[in-house]
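Page 37, continued from 36.
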């Protein structure tokens, strides 16, 4: 027994000496890997699709919705930032992450434990090597313990690094929520106004087609047409009427989305938006910056990078499991009978390290290291995928918007020609050199051109919101408010 105790004592002493001599922080020190996509020069280059006149290389403003110069939109975004439920969820997740960080940081501070246990009973005489029965009496025990974990191998340091990275990732997630809410609010507002515009044009087209159908019916009665002409005109009229309900439903659902985005029940949508018939649009060239600015700005890229940093730190946490866990502690207390409380023979104390080390410790620890390394590799892959996806989304949004502008320009030219044709037909009719059927048909063609242009205006409004979402701006103001609240 003495030999075993001596051997254990020597082993513990050797372990402590080795620990003190090997004081270090294990695991890789984090930096963005050299092979990461974000380090490629091409990722930071100007956008390939931004050469069109619709764009400029100036930086995207923080509050990009002000580019619309629309006070109603400004007020809606401000209300959404103040009341949106998704932003409240993101804020709660951030607060939870900060609480977890505080918990991890507490582990590097001394832990104090106190307990006191008064009672009444009888101590067995045999436990004190006494033959007689001891009387019933008051008993007590009180003790104070102070423990401190010695972070010789950087396990706590790496754990704190990981928790800090997780908190920064949660902040990025909250910023991303601001980006999405700003873009969704803009899109819902644009959808409601665009639907109002298309409804107005569709109603006008129904009116024109109704007059065309009436004229066709009169021509048939006069023997200048057939029943087939009348059926075709009436069929076209009903088809145009059938296009109105989906547009009305689209406007109403957009209003419902807008209400919920701003923290209201669906029925409490803004009345002024329900009357809107002019879709919002940025008339000037849109400032888009370049790839480098995008990589710095987009919160999802920052979130993925911080998750990679946290995963890297956890390699060090797992590596530290290969080495002893050392806890320094001191305890002091008093135990005995209540009548003798405070006497010198009731006090006790202890001081010394507590070394925890499972031998052999390599099996589970190396499995944990392998898991952490695999998690880091996955985090790097997600980081690269996030960067590539951000660049793809932006290039695609730029291309779609630029090509829709081209289509819009062509439709605008077609509308000018249709307007000219309708004017010429009306003039010929007034001079007696034309007929009302041709004039009304020209008017119908004009309204159809207006319908196509209205649909293009709807697409442009949606494409602008998609582009701003891809550019990733709009979180800066919300993040600043969050920083002031901390």
């Amino acid at each position: 027994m003495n030999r075993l105790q001596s051997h254990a004592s020597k082993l513990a002493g050797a372990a402590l000496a080795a620990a003190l001599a090997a004081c270090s922080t294990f695991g890789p020190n984090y930096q963005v890997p050299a092979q990461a996509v974000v380090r490629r020069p091409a990722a930071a280059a100007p956008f390939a699709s931004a050469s069109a006149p619709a764009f400029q290389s100036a930086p995207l403003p923080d509050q990009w919705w002000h580019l619309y110069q629309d006070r109603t939109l400004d007020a809606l975004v401000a209300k959404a930032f103040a009341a949106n439920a998704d932003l409240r969820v993101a804020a709660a997740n951030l607060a939870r992450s900060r609480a977890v960080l505080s918990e991890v940081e507490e582990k590097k501070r001394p832990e104090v434990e106190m307990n006191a246990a008064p009672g009444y009973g009888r101590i067995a005489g045999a436990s004190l090597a006494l033959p007689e029965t001891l009387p019933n009496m008051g008993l007590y025990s009180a003790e104070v313990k102070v423990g401190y974990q010695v972070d010789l191998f950087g396990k706590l340091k790496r754990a704190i690094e990981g928790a800090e990275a997780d908190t920064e990732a949660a902040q990025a997630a909250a910023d991303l929520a601001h980006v999405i809410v700003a873009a969704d609010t803009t899109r819902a507002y644009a959808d409601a106004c665009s639907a109002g515009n298309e409804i107005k044009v569709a109603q006008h087209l129904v009116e024109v087609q109704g007059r065309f159908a009436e004229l066709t019916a009169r021509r048939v009665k006069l023997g200048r047409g057939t029943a087939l002409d009348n059926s075709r005109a009436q069929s076209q009229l009903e088809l145009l009427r059938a296009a109105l309900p989906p547009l009305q439903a689209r406007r109403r659902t957009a209003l419902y989305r807008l209400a919920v985005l701003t923290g209201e029940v669906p029925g409490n949508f803004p009345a002024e938006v329900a009357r809107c018939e002019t879709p919002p649009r940025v008339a000037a060239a849109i400032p888009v910056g370049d790839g480098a600015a995008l990589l710095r700005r987009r919160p999802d890229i920052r979130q993925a990078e911080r998750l990679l940093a946290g995963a890297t730190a956890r390699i060090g946490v797992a590596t530290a499991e290969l080495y002893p866990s050392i806890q320094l502690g001191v305890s002091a207390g008093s135990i005995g009978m209540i009548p003798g409380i405070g006497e010198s023979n009731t006090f006790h104390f202890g001081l010394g390290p507590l070394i925890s080390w499972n031998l052999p410790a390599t099996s589970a620890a190396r499995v944990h290291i392998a898991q952490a390394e695999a998690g880091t590799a996955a985090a790097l892959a997600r980081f690269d995928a996030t960067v590539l996806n951000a660049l793809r989304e932006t290039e695609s949004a730029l291309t779609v918007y630029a090509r829709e502008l081209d289509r819009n320009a062509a439709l605008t030219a077609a509308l000018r020609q249709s307007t000219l044709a309708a004017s010429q037909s009306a003039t010929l009719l007034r001079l007696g050199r034309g007929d009302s059927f041709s004039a009304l048909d020209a008017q119908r063609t004009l309204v159809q051109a207006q319908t196509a242009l209205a649909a293009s205006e709807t697409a442009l409004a949606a494409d602008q919101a998609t582009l701003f979402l891809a550019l990733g701006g709009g979180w800066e103001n919300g993040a600043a408010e969050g920083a002031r609240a901390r």
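Residues 69 and 451 are 25 Å apart (CA to CA). Flag for discussion at group meeting. The first strand starts at residue 55 and ends at 56.
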